Structures are given as C-alpha cells and as structure tokens.
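FORM 7B: Structural annotation worksheet

SECTION A. Query
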Amino acid sequence: MDTKEAAPELEQALQAFRARLEKELRGRLPGETPSGVATDSIYTQSTHPVEASLGHLTCAPLVGDSDRSSRQGWRVHQHYRHPDLEVVAGELKEDLAAGVDAIWLELGIDHGVRVLSRGDLDRLLLEVDLDKTPVAFEAEMDDFVVAAAVASVVQDRGVALASLTGSWGCDPLGAWARTGTFPSGATGAWASLRRIAAWSAQETPAMRALHVSTVPYHEGGASSVHELGWALATGLAYLRELIEAGFDPSSASEQILFVFAVEDDIFEEVAKLRAARLLWAKLLHAFGVHDRPMRIHARTSGRSNTQIDPWVNILRATTQTFAAVIGGANSIGVDGFDASVGPSDSMGRRIARNTQLVLREESHLHEVLDPAGGSWYVEHLTDALARRAWEEMQQIERVGGMESALRKGIPQASVRASALKLRTLVARRARALIGVTDFPNLTEKKLIRPEPKLRDVEGQLGRESADVDAQRRFDSLRSFASSLASDLGVPESETDPALPMRTAALATHEGVDLLALLNLMRDGQPSLHIEPIPPLRLAQPWERLRNLSNRRLVTHGRRPKAFLVTLGVPLEHQKLTMWVQNLLQAAGFEFALHEAHGTPFQVPSDGELQAECGLMIDAFRGSEADIAVLSASEEWLAEIGSVFAKALRTEGAARVLCAGRHPNSWDGSGVHVFLHDSMNLLGLFSMLFREIGGH
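SECTION B. Predicted structure
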C-alpha cells in the first residue's frame, strides 16, 4: 500500500493507541522529564518532527567518532580519592591487574589523595606503567604543581613525556564553582591554564590539558539543561583563552576533555550526552572547526546514592553506566556502591569495575554506534535539551561569560532552585529512592567504612629523594620564580609559555615541595571568592529520620510505632495500604496492622460498629503505638471513618492520620492529617518525631 494512502489509517490507529495508553496510565501522561521537557504517550515522525537540529547539524552526534567506532569500546576508568596515598598505591596495583584500562586520580595538597612532594607522587604511581596506562589527574587549584611533579617523576623513570596519555585536568572555573576560591585570583588561574596548555601541547601531546567538568553543578542539583549550557559556556571561555595564547581553534579544542555526571533517568541522560556533542560541534563550527568531535568522560552520579541499603547503588551504577555508553561516552568511571558511606574497599571497587566490564565484554554495548539514533523520543529529547541549553549558554554570554556569571552568582542561584525542586520531589516521595523512600528495610544492617585519620595521613607527606642538595634546591626555586616573572605582562609571542612548567618540574626534582611552588605562584595575587556550590545527596533527609529511629531503638528499646487500621476487604484498600506501609518504614516507623470489618462494603449496624471499634481499641492499647493511621476506600471512610478516628484520639493516639486525599463525601472529623503524595511527607514525619520525642 502507498504510504500516503496508508496515512489516514495509521493516524486512526495511533489515536486509538494513545487513548488506550492514557486510559491505562490513568492520566499520568503527558508528563515531563527531570529537566522539564514535556513528554507524550507516543512519538512518531508526524507527531513530533525534529527540525534540522540547531541549524546545520543532524541528530547523529556520534557519526565520525572513530574512537567509539572501534571494537575496543569505551575506556574503563577507576576513580581514586582516598586521602592516604599508600592505600591508593596498593589499590592501583590491585585494580590494574584486574581489568582497569585507565586511572583517574583526584588529588592535591589538601583534597583527595594527599600529596605534597615529587616523592609522594613517585610513591603513589610506583606500580603504574606510565607509558602504557592512561592517567587523568583532577587536582583543582593544585593542577600546575601536580603536573610539574608528575613530569619530573616520568622523566626520572626514563619514560618519554610524549608517550603519556590521559589528561592534566586543569579546570579553573569548575574548581572555582565547587570550592568558591581562586587562591591566586582570576589572573593567576588563567595564567596557570595557559602555562599548562602550552607545555602540554609541546611536551605531552597525547594528554588533554583541560577539563570542562559539570560535576560540581550536577552534584549540587543542576538540571541537564544547566549542565549542558554551562559546559558550553565554560568550553567557550577556555577556547578563547587558548586562542588568545596562540593556539589555533582546532588544536585548542583538542586540549579539552568534557566531564559529565550521569544519573538514573536513562533517556534523559542518553539525550544529554548526545546533545552535548551536537552543541560542541555547532560551537566549533563557528570557529571553522569541523572534524574535532567532543571527548566525553562520564562518571556515575553521587547525588542519588544512598548510605542506607547501599547495595541498591549497584543497580543505580549499572543504569547510569548503560546510559553513558548509549549516550556515547569515550570513557567512564563508576564509583563503588559504598562510596557514599566512606572510601570504597576492594569489593566496592571490584563491583564497580566489573559493572563496566560485563556491559562491554559480555553485553557488547559498544559494538553499535549511536544505538539511540532513530528513536523519535530520544531524537526529540536530544533536540529539546540542545535548544534549551544553547539558550542557556547565550544567557551566560550576555552577562559576560561563565567567569562573570559565577562572580554574579547566576549559576549558584539556578542550582539552588533546581536543588529545591529535587528536594521537594523527594520530600513528597514523588522521586523514588529505592531502599530509602521506597521498599525500605528497617532491619537492614548498617554498612561501615572507616574514615581515614587525616592527621596521620598528612604527617607522612613530603617524601624526598636521597640526593637532595640544599643549594640546588634554592637555585631551582629561584629559576622557577624568574620564569614566572618573565611571562607576566609580556606578550605570548615574545616568551616561552611552557618555561614555568619546565622550571617547576626541575624544582620538584631538586626537592622543592608543591606548597612552596604554589606560594610563589600566589605571591602578590589576591585571592578571589564566590559562593561555592555545595553537594547535594537526595536521600540524606530521609536517612536522618531512619538514623533517629535507630537511635530511639537503642535509647528507648523500640522504634516509633504506628497503629495501622484497614477497613474493608484488601482489594478495596490494598494499593493504598502498601503505599502507607512503605511511607511509615521510610520514616523509621514500625507498624502494627489491624484489619477491621474485612467484608465487602455494606453499612454496618450500630452493634457491629461498636464491637468492631472495641476490638480496634483493645488492639491499639496492646500495640504501644505512638500514632494511628487509617487506610480504607472512600465509601468506608464516609460511613465509619469519623467513629474510628475519634475513638483513637480519645484513647490517646498522639496523631490520627488517614491515607489518601480528603474525600468529598466525608467531613474528616477526628483526623489530624490526610496523607497523599502531593504533600511534604518528610516535613510531616520530622514534626511527628519531635512531637513523640524521637529526637
């Protein structure tokens, strides 16, 4: 049959399907994605046409990416941030032998893996084959001195700097957003960026000098649109800085690695990464660059992880890794399921590593290029996110760029608003956190990961080589100071921007520690401060209630308790009762279940009602419950709800709650609060804890 002739019949079939679907879903569609993109019940070319995306690009952002087209697939990273470098050195040896392709080190003088000297880095990387193993460094404001010390270690081992692969991780704006501080001011931060990039382009061409990380924004609560828009604005700021320093646009783009956190909503996260590639390609097109695809490192999200029932984090990580692969990430880092509790142990790292290896080596996810391409829903969502993110980037440009926006607190305000929206959804249990807000287990044994003692760790720092000479150390430090002075205020074309890095590497070789180098770099440069973006962990408020419940169990011998009364046959109230049982346990309440009048609905006689009420009161007295909850159909509540509620209040229930919205057929007398998923359930149960002495 001709397509045009079939069009009316197809349209009728689609309309019938849409009507049936919306009936089955009881009005839950249309809805919206976490970023506010409206969703529909069905997507086709006719119902949701995707225009030529952003002017000149198609919706196939992975085409032409030779790295992801290879049969090797994405690169499996392991992230390390334990403060004790001796511990991390052992973990590196173990994990590299067990299947990790590359390592990602979060380190610095006062954050992540603590390092203070070249000797510390030499010990940390002792078991790493540096000319074969890609290493990504994330050192925040210590990036320059860490790179210098690593370069010294590499050269002393006889490894060619040009053979290094990975990234140096210079990301001044991302670090500024997280910490709120430019220790050497904006001038010093941008100078470090230029120096690292210039030296890396000359000496370590296979290393990417810069990161554009949206992780601080994501972990603070930002939406996908914000992440994409700010990634683009940050990347644009770095491109301009490098071009001004003498890079051509193509080589400047090759210095940048983008880092995104990926959360649980598979379709939105896939669309986010696809949109990121579209946006970056469009931006580079404006600079005349057409063959430099975005390089993406994806990492699992921390904001949705839980400390209670952390085993569910394994499922979250699997979902997030799957989305990152389908979205086209070039490399992925998966945190251990126990990372929200403390430093991951060997089992946590092994499960995280094997999550990727199973998806790659057994599921072969990498063997299909852009598998989401052609899905009308994903294409529509990709296009919608890209367009909104492009508008966000333009708004940032109107206020002077990303640095200016951070100074003015614009991203911070947006993140606060997004975080409030997320917290509100979690407080209502409209955003499910399995194991915490849904399907909780009050008897779950708490997972313990001992926290390292920073005083002991920092006391071991500052390892030196045996042949350090005081005069050579002094001379090398003076040479470094001279190199810093020589490139300040001098046009880039008249000086060697890589000289400070070379002299810094020599100084670390001669025993100068990283802090001394940093102090020289910051001398005369006033620090610059903004409001930092604090991390958000969505489960934390509900976990606080559970912890209060555990404490009450220890101090009082029992948890807070609810007396749950169901009226009628289970078929009439089962769904509502299950909902309220989940809610009570999520809030740390045990419950005693009393099933009253378990027959199909019929108005009970006065005698039957009095007898049923007497049985309920006897059960309530023996339950030692603090509060009471009614769960029943609207018909039952209208007839006898008030009688039961008033009886429970008279008997001493601190609060009488009723599951469900206030029915029109009942005045609700006797009930303090009606429970439903549009209210602040977290706030209500926090108040109940205070009232019954749960604090």
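SECTION C. Observations
The radius of gyration is 30 Å. Residues 52-61 have pLDDT under 50 and may be disordered.

SECTION D. Sign-off
Analyst initials: ____
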